[in-house]
Design a protein that fits this description.
This protein is α+β, with helices and mostly antiparallel strands. Helix content is about 40%, strand content about 20%. It has one domain: 2-Layer Sandwich (Alpha-Beta Plaits). It has 7 helices and 4 strands; from the N terminus they run βααβααβααβα. A 4-stranded antiparallel β-sheet has the order 2-3-1-4. The longest helix is centred in the C-terminal third of the chain and has 11 residues.
């Protein structure tokens, strides 16, 4: 594990798992010189997803994410790198809407639609990363 590294959570959503894209997506992070510190293939209860996506509560897509992803396989990663890793990961992933995502980004190249499953979730700030990592990897000591 990298000491003093910036860490972030990345989830490969059910469609990424279903379409056998885990390796392709992970290789993009590795090619960008990010370190995978933890990796697990798992599924989450509705309650965990409700907490993960709490900032979207009340939005029209919230229920489809929480209910639609519950119990389905997802790959969860702790990525680490130098300062700026969170921004780098978000750039690699691309815009939320795959139509607006740059070619060469994960969503720009691989995602088919925007909601609810645009392949990848990534923390959007150090505060979100800390909260999300504790939720998804309670055993992980950042």
């Amino acid at each position: 594990m990298q000491e003093n590294a910036e860490k972030t959570l990345v989830l490969l959503k059910p469609e990424a798992v279903r379409r056998n894209l885990i390796g392709r997506i992970i290789s993009r992070f590795e090619e960008a010189n990010l370190t995978i510190e933890e990796l697990k293939l798992t599924s989450f209860k509705r309650e965990t997803l409700a907490e993960l996506y709490q900032e979207h509560r009340g939005k029209d897509f919230y229920e489809s994410i929480v209910s639609g992803f519950a119990g389905k396989p997802m790959a969860a990663l702790v990525l680490a790198g130098p300062e700026g890793t969170i921004a780098k990961v978000r750039s690699l992933i691309g815009a939320t809407d795959p139509v607006q995502a740059e070619p060469g980004s994960i969503r720009g190249d691989l995602a088919c639609h925007m909601q609810p499953d645009n392949l990848v979730h990534a923390s959007d700030s150090p505060e979100s990363a800390e909260r999300e990592l504790k939720l998804i990897f309670p055993e992980f000591q950042a």
